[in-house]
């Protein structure tokens, strides 16, 4: 591809139009820019499968490529470019070794930003020693930062935002059948997808091993925020997620769904307000299995389902302890008297006293049981029957002639609500 100086006023060091790619990187290259102020590269033509920066020797790999303080802009924000182009392999930065016996080694990105690309913002295939520091991948149509069959990777203060599918992903590739993806560290990273992503997670491990994730924030995803799963032939193992924040999401905060999983742990995390459970562990096919998964010392808050932790019934080896469970339910406990009505005058004896007590994390469910409810008649604790519909029923209550007072108390997730009323028995 030809690379020309931009027209006056564009503000980019290089301006590329046309298919194929912008700048070709070779072994030993070190490219230095001045960050967002200098706006290093702009690719202006909408061409499927075009690249901003691409390494030259893709079959055999390239080594010692360093990119520093670069700002690269694509064109996904233009009105003539589809929001999601699933057929495109367009990439802001693509560094790859295509041969199964080759590696790209010692790849370093520092202070690099890629904005508005039509496809995957960054992709590294078969890399060994890939280190990203202060890197941003913003508003890609597809995934933000992706690694396949790589080893020895560190991500420090990496942000992948408004992604169209997996924002940060580590996936084993079937093309490299003998290689699992391994040796991963993430620290102080942040990722989230758009409200209408194609696919899944804020952070995804597919068949990865030996990963440590710390002090990071995952804010929104169409599926689980942090997903640990199986790739054919490669089951996850030795993946630790510690002291992270997982906020919102359309499914679970932290999910393990694999054929087998060993050495998986979530410790000291804050998981808040997923639409399903905070933690979910299951097999791919629902069959009995034994995992090694530890969930401990986490704060699990406001799951959309009735469970903070969901574990497949026939699955063994999931250990949960020391977790702080918080239920900030969306509908306050509702208490109302059905019969006798407040302030009414009724004939004695009264056949039935009935009220309703309901509380739930969604409007369509009732999460109370009889142990949550207390009934008092004239300041004396009374027995009653409780039904899942919320009905509190006391048959043939002991009443006195004249004024009678009834009190209903509901204790739910550490809070107590009560309501009192009175009526007159003649």
Task: Describe the overall structure.
This protein is an all-beta fold and 426 residues long. The chain has 2 domains: 14-326, Pectate Lyase C-like (3 Solenoid), CATH 2.160.20; 331-425, Immunoglobulin-like. It contains no helices and 41 strands. The chain has a 21-stranded parallel sheet that branches. Strand 36 (373-377) and strand 37 (380-381) form a beta hairpin. The model is unreliable at 1-9 (pLDDT under 50).
Blueprint (SSEs and pairs):
Blueprint: E1 14-16, E2 23-25, E3 30-32, E4 41-43, E5 51-55, E6 63-68, E7 71-73, E8 91-96, E9 104-110, E10 113-115, E11 120-125, E12 127-138, E13 145-148, E14 151-163, E15 168-171, E16 181-187, E17 190-193, E18 203-206, E19 208-214, E20 217-218, E21 226-229, E22 237-242, E23 245-247, E24 254-258, E25 262-267, E26 270-272, E27 279-283, E28 289-296, E29 299-301, E30 309-311, E31 315-321, E32 324-326, E33 331-339, E34 345-346, E35 352-360, E36 373-377, E37 380-381, E38 385-386, E39 391-395, E40 402-412, E41 415-425
Parallel strand pairs: 1-4, 2-5, 3-6, 4-7, 5-8, 6-9, 7-10, 8-11, 9-12, 10-12, 11-13, 12-14, 13-15, 14-16, 14-17, 15-18, 16-19, 17-20, 18-21, 19-22, 20-23, 21-24, 22-25, 23-26, 24-27, 25-28, 26-29, 27-30, 28-31, 29-32, 34-41
Antiparallel strand pairs: 33-35, 35-39, 36-37, 36-40, 38-39, 40-41
